[in-house]
Amino acid sequence: MAAARRFAFPLFALAALGLAALPVPDFWITQGIYIGLYALVALGLVLLTGVAGLTSFGQAAFVGVGAYTAAALVVKLSLSPWLALLVGIALAVAAALVLGAITLRMSGHYLPLATIAWGLALNYTMANMDWLGKYDGILGVPELRLFGRDLGTGRGLYALVWVIALAAAWGCANLLDSRPGRAIRAVKDGSTMAEAMGVSTFRYKLVVFVLAAVLAAVSGWLFAFFQRTVNPSPFSIAKGIEYLFVAVLGGVSHVWGAFLGAGVVRIVEDQLQVLLPRLFGASGNYETIVFGIVLVIVLKYAPDGLWSFAGRLLPRADRKRDWEGAPALPARDKPARGEPLLQVEAVRKQFGGLTAVNDVSFDIRAGDIVGLIGPNGAGKSTTFNLITGVLSLSAGQVRWRGEAIGGLPSREIARRGISRTFQHVKMIPEMTVLENVALGGYLRSSSGTLRAMLRLDREEERRLFAEAERQLARIGMADRMNELAGNLALGPQRLMEIARALCTDPALLLLDEPAAGLRHKEKQALADVLRQLKAEGMSLLLVEHDMEFVMGLTDRIVVMEFGTRLMEGTPAEVQASPEVRAAYLGTEH
After folding, report:
1. Which residue has the higher pLDDT, 272 or 35?
2. Among 286, 439, 443, 573, which residue's beta carbon has the most beta carbons within 10 A?
3. Helix-strand-coil split of the chain, %, nearest 5
4. Nearest to 585 by CA among 564, 567, 561, 565
5. Is the separation of the CB atoms in 550 and 544 below 8 Å?
6. Do 496 and 437 touch, CB atoms closer than 8 A?
7. CA geometry: angle at 441 spanning 435 and 443, to 5°?
8. Strand order from edge to edge, sheet including 564-569
9. DSSP codes, 217-233
10. Could you read off the pLDDT of 340-383 as tens digits, one per residue?
């Protein structure tokens, strides 16, 4: 099965490119061109919607940018088609940067509505400019020439379309299996975890938005030379919805789902346009009704698209372990034992009229394990979020090695050496345990999007996976590194999250209920790991409800009640405190 997966792409590429050399009717060559053009746009939607979770109905407008640029520069200014390609890409990038800067900060239903708005705006702009021919468009686009040869609108152009589409698919697959690819995947389920690992979530939203726009513009450039004419109709919002339908039907989270969806839609649509008018006895776009029904069925019974069935023929293969002997990732200078590390100074957090944390103060020195305990609702996790920048301070200050860090974004606080886990495990369930942990090494690596797409980042990837395996071995999970994270029980998920935090090479590790869901032996193993970390000079701040676990592990304990600090002391002092017993039991006796 591993061999089948390894040779699947070469065989598919050979079959796709070889079609033009076979004595098939020209109709199938034309269909093949359409499939390649649709797949290019759908690939962008795989990155944008399926992986990053950003729904866009406006990709057809970017197709129009590429097509109109090609037609206008070649027909009206007699410029080279290849120069027109570069200009079209540049315009698509510029438009995507402007539109992305405005719309990508939106969330929920506002983002899809915004994409409809700018899709309509770009389409109407194209349709109402005199120099673009208004609704008549631009006629007489010449055939595309390559190395002095006319490619025409048949087999020659088919080969070019599929070379570009396959190259784009290869680049997208490489991107998703890389440092920036893991960062993009982390964006989908919210920004909190990704930012805590040092990822600029807005930056990566903008990256995928621009990539999707570029792929759409390239499809539009090819479309102009295929149709030999350009008008606004193929770039309407209805077409944008169709492109999204192609991606969802095929499998919006999978690179090869873009090709499957494009093939099914083009072939079935063409057949329905012939069959349905015969059945109904009248002409009309009846295929739209069928596709609407199909979309509802797919969303209900196969939300991962048709690729969820086709992909079963190529079972997931374990990652090849090729990082033996890889150089270690860069490590930060650690503070000397006893050095003042974190000062929490009268921090306060108010949500309207509710004060969740009220003037809480405590210090942590290098090498200490400090516990933060209190009844449910005492404000412990809110305090964690204030320290790590997830929440903004209403008052007070947090200092890290003398530097005020209150108000800094989470990723900047992570860059300074503070890492954390979460009360409710945050992970990427579709990635393996190893890949989830490797995300923790984001700030210790540097490969960017272009290097990843060209697969020039493999040496750094080896170093990242070597570090991820080392941290998994540290917590006793190296044998589970190739499992999907979403298949783990809660206890192993928490351990994986600790390994990911350790992969950031922190000087201070914040653990929010790390023992929750662990069996007794797993708790003992975790306590041994934390003691080993302390012996290596790491400082820890942990929230935990298991008092036996806390008392046997910490040097000092801060007790909170109703958002305030009740007391601070050694485990023995806390156990002996009547105030603490009253807070937990509701009585002083």
Report:
1. 35
2. 439
3. 60, 10, 30
4. 561
5. yes
6. yes
7. 140
8. 418-420, 508-512, 539-543, 369-373, 556-561, 564-569
9. HHHHHHHHHHHS-B-SG
10. 999 999 999 998 888 899 999 999 999 899 999 888 888 888 99
